[in-house]
Write a structure and sequence with these properties.
The complex is a heterodimer of chains A (about 270) and B (about 200). In chain A, about 40% of the residues lie in helices and about 25% in strands. With about 270 residues, chain A is of the alpha+beta class. Chain B has a six-stranded mixed β-sheet. The chains are: A alpha+beta (about 270), B alpha/beta (about 200). Chains A and B meet through helix 6 of A and strand 5, helix 8 and helix 9 of B.
Chain lengths: ~270, ~200
């Protein structure tokens, strides 16, 4: 990397972002990139580079979420909101990651954090976030339970395999109708089936809160998070790039993280 | 504008015939005329012409928003994209084939070793697999393998080389795949095209 402007802009953006987090009451964290590692973590962090020294397993930091969990368990911090900016290594590539982790996050905490990040990105980019895509795996669980569907339906949903869904469910099935409709219609259609559930109400609150941002809001049951440790609501937000500028989700039942893409999300 | 990656060769011809069946002559006419070009543009759609195994790469990376590709390629390699729909053309199948009177397959040659491995594992049959990039019918003729796993359409190539089909392994047909991100960011254009070619009603 020899592009002076790009390097300086990235650092300036990181500093501006950390300044926002500092002003908003987040605890800023910087940690050693070499971390103790349990081989059990490999499932959730398959791209981690793992090595052994003196009979102890270590990994190069591949995800700040895990780093922060380590930090909290080692230092017994009472803080619940953390911010970070620094490099991570996945497979053979390193890149910068910035973001926040919130523990004991309430629905309002999640909405506030997401809005703060969307506004930050929009201010820096001088344009609005074009698309916010959201999902919660528990919604598909609800469909499977309500309609007594086989588990094999999951893979068809995940891959948006419309033709096979039609063969398996029939063209009049609610789930087929939802999956073959435009993705931006899914929120309304899923709401007609499960609108009174806590999950859909939380998603509806979020949609309502970002209504002023002029962002297209999409709920898509096929949308999958690249992080397989998310077990609640998760999302990706796009500027003009095809890679998300923001991504994140709920994990460990009441923790929530947001990552800001400082590489190819469209800000730099 | 959206970009549609098309597999060159037989699947391309089948796709053009499919478009004609739907009376989408604005596409079929241009595609027929441009078969030697790298890409062509019709209205708001850019068609790029790629080798079959490259189509999922273009779609996964977002260079193309949609791809038309044989399910053989989807089954053989692992990619990350939306596997939206089967298409009613490009039908053929994978088969285990070899010279007549083979009692047991110990060594099998194929361009599609992952599909072959999956099949033999499902049969609980240990075999040694040899990867070849083409003309796999040569392998049993020259004694390199007992048999082959390959795509069979009419069976003429097998017959011409003195081989017979032992087992049908997997149906193959054309599929429409889509990039995971641009499915959202270019939703309107993508759904318009999907509707136009009859993938969704």
């Amino acid at each position: 990397m020899t592009n002076n402007n790009f390097i300086l802009e990235r650092l300036a953006l990181g500093q501006k972002y950390l300044g926002l987090l500092d002003d908003s009451g987040y605890t800023l964290v910087d940690m050693n990139m070499i971390e103790p590692f349990s081989i059990d973590d490999k499932y959730h962090h398959p791209t981690s580079v793992v090595f052994e020294r003196n009979n102890t397993m270590y990994a190069i930091r591949s995800d700040w979420t895990r780093t922060l969990l380590n930090f909290n368990s080692n230092f017994y911090s009472n803080d619940t909101r953390f911010g970070y900016f620094g490099p991570v290594v996945r497979e053979n590539e390193s890149f910068y990651q910035a973001g926040v982790e919130i523990y004991q996050a309430t629905e309002n905490d999640i909405i506030d954090a997401l809005l703060m990040h969307m506004n930050f990105v929009e201010e820096c980019a001088e344009t609005n976030i074009k698309t916010l895509v959201i999902n919660n795996d528990q919604l598909l669980d609800l469909f499977i339970k309500k309609y007594d569907l086989p588990d094999t339906v999951r893979q068809l949903i995940y891959t948006k395999n419309i033709s096979e869904l039609r063969q398996h469910l029939g063209k009049d099935h609610d789930l087929y109708k939802i999956m073959s409709a435009k993705v931006s219609d899914q929120f309304k259609m899923v709401g007609e089936v499960f609108g009174d559930t806590e999950i859909m109400q939380a998603i509806a609150h979020l949609k309502e809160k970002i209504a002023d941002n002029n962002t297209k809001f999409i709920l898509d049951l096929s949308f999958r998070s690249p992080q397989n440790y998310y077990n609640g609501l998760y999302f990706q937000a796009f500027l003009n790039s095809n890679t998300p500028i923001l991504s994140g989700g709920e994990y460990n039942s009441n923790s929530f993280g947001i990552a800001l893409n400082l590489a190819d999300g469209g800000l730099l | 504008m959206i970009t549609v990656a098309l597999s060159k060769g037989r699947l391309f011809d089948d796709f053009v015939s499919y478009l004609e069946k739907y009376e989408l002559y604005k596409y079929s006419k241009v595609l027929k005329d441009e078969s030697r070009a790298l890409y062509t543009i019709v209205d708001d759609i850019r068609f790029i012409f790629a080798k079959g195994p490259d189509v999922p790469v273009y779609v996964e990376r977002g260079v193309a928003d949609i791809g038309i590709v044989g399910s053989d390629i989807i089954e053989e390699e692992v990619f990350s994209y939306l596997n939206v729909s089967e298409l009613p053309f490009g039908k053929c199948h994978f088969a285990l084939a070899g010279p007549p009177d083979v009692e047991h397959f110990n060594t099998v040659a194929s361009k599609y070793t992952n599909i072959a491995r999956k099949y033999f594992n499902s049969q609980q049959q240990p075999v040694s697999l040899i990867h070849l990039n083409g003309s796999v019918e040569l392998a049993p003729i020259l004694g390199l393998a007992d048999g082959i796993v390959d795509i069979v359409q009419t069976g003429n190539t097998l017959r011409d080389n003195g081989l017979i089909e032992y087992e049908k392994i997997l149906d193959v047909q054309a599929r429409l795949i889509a990039n995971k991100q641009t499915f959202y960011t270019k939703e309107d254009s993508i759904y318009e095209f999907l509707s136009e070619i009859g993938v969704i009603e």
